[in-house]
Structure formats: structure tokens, C-alpha cells
Amino acid sequence: MSAPSLEGTWELIRAELGGEAAPQMLAHNITLELAAGEYTVRFAGEIADRGTYTPDPAPGINRLTLTGVEGPSAGRTIPCIYQLAGDRLRVCYGLDGRVPTAFATSTGQQHYLASYRRRAG
User: Fold this and answer.
1) pLDDT over 90 at 120, yes or no
2) Cα 86 from Cα 94, distance rounded (Å)
3) Bridge partner list, 32
């Protein structure tokens, strides 16, 4: 049996940055598309950020590296850790360029923690 794929369209269901929860209205308008090594973030259907992603098969924890091409992440490299369970995906983004060590954020820390649900179809 093969491992579940990250590829697909993911709807943001909850997020936090620096220990603060994102407003639900904002969260429910964001999708993340992962396909063929490329990512696209859409806000209310419009492309907000785009780039590439590379899985890093580090032992013990699933890691990704995002490289921004267009939008606010253009020219940035963002290391991430992720958990995938069925139709749920949790990603902790190291916006400060450092690999997160936990699925958590706190005040003064540049980590963005996002929980997604796979869009059906």
C-alpha cells in the first residue's frame, strides 16, 4: 500500500501565527493546491502566492521546503514540517527560515501553523 499523497487541493480550516489564531473568515477563503512539485495559495479564488515544494524524507518527521516564485514569498525558502492523516493535513511553516521543531506557535516566533482538509473531487 502506498503512502497517502500530498497532492490535491486543501482547504484551510484553522491557522495561527505567533500564538494568535487567524480570523475564521480569513481562514475559510484560503486554499492550498499541491501538484507536480508546485504549490499555489489562493485567497477567495485568486492566486495569492505560488512556488515549488520539495519533500525532504528526513527520518522521524515529514519535512517540506517551499521556494516562493510569485507573491509575498517570492525569492524566499521556507522550511516546513507536516503531518498527513487521511483527508487532513497539518503544516508548520518556518517563516524565519528555520525548520520548526513542533506543531506549535508562540509570541515572538515566526511559525505559521495551518490545518487543512482535502477538498473532495
Assistant:
1) no
2) 24
3) 10, 41
